[in-house]
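Sorry to interrupt, but I need a hand with the structure work. Can you supply me with one protein entry, sequence and fold together? No commentary is needed, just the two lines. Leave the record below and I will have a look.
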Amino acid sequence: MGKFEINKDKAGKFRFNLKAGNHQVILSSQGYATKSACENGIESVRKNSKDDKMFDRKKAKDGSPYFSLKSSNGQAIGSSEMYSSTSAMSKGIASIKKNAPKATVQDISGKIVIHPCLQPRFFQGPWQCGRSRLRMSSAPTMSTKISFPAHPAA
């Protein structure tokens, strides 16, 4: 089953992503000034995703197909990623039609997102992340200071 995730961007605006059951983002919203406006955007997706005419199919400058979902007043509610083909884009639209009406809503706008490598369930220690070159001698706590060493190519 799909889910809407509400988050807050660096500018302090609320945004949502609709994720399919496989956790892939299938629709991303514009920025909203308030969380309630963002929640209204989610309800608009639920309502308008049922009508195929509300999907505005487009092509990027490089020819990649993508779409935006419009509300009844013609304003874009959200847009898709760039697809490799028109048939892939059609599958994305079908996924939104399937997932949006009953998708749950998860608000992660106030949560601190911890890098997966810092989560205790992944490693017993010493703590090391190959992707970010992070090294820690013990499990992180709320007061742990994290430092990232300089990249060897620097």
